[in-house]
Amino acid sequence: MDPSDRALAFWLLAPTAILLLLIIVYPVGRLVWTSLHNLSLTSGLPAEFVGLENFEIMLDDPIFWAALWNTVLITIITVPGALLVGLGLALLANLPFRYRWPVRLSLLVPWALPLSFVGLIFAWFFQSQYGVVNDILMRFGLPRIIWFNSPEWSFTAICLAIIWKTSSFVGLILLAGLQTIPRSLYEAADVDGAGRLRQFFEITLPLLKPAIVVALIFRTITALQTFDIPYTMTRGGPGTSTATLAMYIHQNTVSFLDLGYGSALAVAMFVLSMGVTVIYLRMMGKGH
Fold it and tell me: Beta partners for 268?
């Protein structure tokens, strides 16, 4: 057989296209279709097509808006926080000292831990009676804080846990980007008399931009889908002050068995994630 280039390309791409249809297009299409129905497993009634009614209910749902705001706020706080901490870790791991493996190993450990396990660890850290954080505060003569009785302190604890967990992932991506920058550029800058700070802003950051954008895309999407750490630390409390959109979806689909409304909420999360991804990709395109 001597296929043409077009036929060869078709047969090479066909398995990937079929796989994407099975694991992405069909589930998303099914999700959108379910969101257009009134489907509650507790009612015992068959699914009823209601069009956009679930989305109209969602727009009038104050819990949805509170959960959406909490999700956006977590994203706004933890994504830049993880980027800054991850960049510092990547720069440290990229330094030309002899024994770098402990630093690089420290990048892997937080990333390898399960999210729910991290939530349990930090729930113990911030426990009001015997937590590590309050113990440190009291040793410095500061008052003990009851972290999980206050929306503000609960939110602070959650954001710190998320930044600690995700900064290692960002650091690994940025470390890979740093290692692609030729050393000859820094050597030439040294010859020209450029200091470390000027080299960072004129060489490192511009050449690291693609890696930064990739890290931001992955980190923002996962931040918008935050579930495990807030769920294991506070269960969304006090009240619903730390509940995220993913937790509200879980509540409606798993606890209330309202698959129609839960699917509508999931569609909203999907659209939000895709919108953020498009913005980042456009930013990357303008940079080239």
Answer: none
The answer to whether 37 touches 48, Cβ cutoff 8 Å, is yes
CA angle 82, 107, 242 (to 5 degrees): 35
CA distance 32 to 8: 34
pLDDT digits (tens, 9 = 90+) for 134-169: 999 999 999 999 999 999 999 999 999 999 999 999
Please give the sequence-ordered ranges of beta strands (E in DSSP) within the chain, or none if there are none: 37-38, 48-49
Do 242 and 155 form a contact (C-beta atoms < 8 A)? yes
| Residue closest to 245 by CA, chosen among 279, 222, 218 | 222
Angle between the N-to-C axes of helices 151-178 and 205-224, in degrees from 0 to 180, rounded to the nearest 10: 140
Task: Render 45-86 in DSSP notation, one character per residue.
Answer: PPPEE-TTHHHHHHHT-HHHHHHHHHHHHHHHHHHHHHHHHH
- Distance separating alpha carbons of residues 46 and 277, to the nearest angstrom: 36
**What is this structure's pTM?**
0.88
Three-state DSSP at 145 gives coil
CA 183, 186, 187, 188 torsion: positive or negative? Answer: positive
Residue 242 to residue 226: CA distance in whole angstroms: 11
28-53 confidence digits (pLDDT tens): 999 999 999 999 988 888 889 999 99
